[in-house]
Automatic annotation (TrEMBL):
Family annotation (SUPFAM superfamilies): Quinoprotein alcohol dehydrogenase-like
UniProt region (Disordered), positions on chain: 1-76
Stated name of the protein: Bulb-type lectin domain-containing protein
Gene3D superfamilies in alphabetical order: YVTN repeat-like/Quinoprotein amine dehydrogenase
PANTHER family: ENDOGLUCANASE (PTHR42754), LIPOPROTEIN (PTHR42754:SF1)
Domain of life: Bacteria
InterPro entries, A to Z: Quinoprotein_ADH-like_sf, WD40/YVTN_repeat-like_dom_sf
Length: 346
């Protein structure tokens, strides 16, 4: 947040009457809790996927809800003020299953939210992108995809450019491919689209802009690397041309979940790993330079299952990572937030 606080967003079953409810908390720079909020939960499953800081000190939360809206599930947008009180709530979608999975704030205070929709588009599910204004009202929405299953997991906006990434399933093909598109923010039309195939079971999970305007995509790939699932990093030029690709991982399943850009053109990758670390699964941070070489890597977690969600770079160069843990905390799964230095040390 602008004042150095940290807002985390997700879901809870501990405070929603046994049903999944949206959950958010605001922490001070030292990690002490200022407030927590549980929202929704009238029906399973409600939850937030992303929290976005607003310039006025409030927070915009996006995710999915079954408690509100018209369909099986709907895209959910909620604005909280600095004290954690709800200012407005919007739902988006039709009669079927529609969800927001990621979002980015825009220069005008609006939002570009992405995910998938089964209510609109050409296929079973399609990539869904919705631009809102600062009040959360829809400016436009677009779908992309064919007659089968397509969806978006990540979006990044920089300097008036927007890139959306996810997966596509081509007619007649058994597997999935990485899908990426640059969108015109004015109307949502695609400037370019790219499909990338490595193993037949590939999906992009996150995207960010590098320092020189290139696009870095993190994807999961099910073959052709070191283990059962590996991290596939893809760097594209601003025009969507391939610059380089790298595969990272060990003998077991390793999956990237988020990216954060570094000032020198590199990126930090937050992944789950079953190849390294202390437990069944651990959070794995990798610092990768602008040529795709790993400068350092660290794992975090205990003897059970610990997973990362979002990673962010603080103004001082330090890192923040949030996810969930079953090795620590009071319950089966608990929210897990780590403040790290620039080298990934606690």
């Amino acid at each position: 947040m602008p004042d150095g606080d940290v807002v985390v967003a997700g879901k809870t079953r501990s405070h929603g009457g046994g049903r999944a409810a949206g959950w958010s908390a605001r922490l001070d720079p030292g990690g002490e809790t200022r407030w927590t909020r549980t929202i929704g939960g009238a029906r399973a499953t409600d939850g937030f996927k992303r929290g976005l800081p607003r310039a006025d000190g409030g927070t915009r939360l996006i995710g999915q809800t079954r408690s509100e809206g018209a369909g099986e599930s709907d895209g959910w947008l909620l604005d909280l003020n600095a004290e954690g009180n709800t200012e407005r709530e919007r739902v988006f979608g039709g009669p079927e299953n529609d969800r927001f999975v990621d979002a980015a704030m825009l220069a005008d205070g609006g939002t570009l939210a992405v995910g998938f929709t089964a209510s609109y588009g050409a296929g079973d599910r399609d990539v869904w992108a919705v631009r809102t204004d600062a009040e959360g009202r829809a400016v436009w929405q677009r779908t992309f995809g064919g007659s089968r299953d397509d969806g978006a997991y990540g979006v990044a906006v920089h300097d008036g450019r927007a890139v959306v990434v996810g997966y596509t399933r081509t007619d007649g093909e058994a597997g999935y491919d990485v899908w990426a598109a640059r969108l015109d923010l004015a109307d949502g039309e695609a400037v370019w689209t790219r499909t990338l195939d490595r193993s037949g079971m590939d999906a992009a999970t996150s995207v960010t802009f590098a320092g020189d305007g290139d696009v870095v995509i993190a994807a999961s790939t099910a073959g052709g690397g070191f283990g059962r699932d590996d991290i596939w990093l893809i760097r594209l030029s601003a025009d969507g041309d391939n610059v380089w690709t790298r595969t990272l991982g060990g003998p077991s399943a390793d999956t990237p979940w988020s990216l954060a850009p570094l000032a020198d053109g590199g990126v930090v990758v937050a992944a789950s790993t079953q190849s390294y670390g202390a437990g069944s699964a651990d959070a794995w941070l990798l610092n990768v330079d602008d040529n795709g070489a790993v400068r350092w890597q660290r794992t975090y977690g205990g003897e059970l299952w610990d997973w990362p969600g979002q990673v962010a770079v603080r103004p001082d160069g330090g890192l923040l990572m949030a996810g969930y843990t079953t090795s620590l905390g009071a319950g089966y799964e608990d929210v897990w937030v780590l403040r790290l230095d620039a080298q990934g040390r606690l």
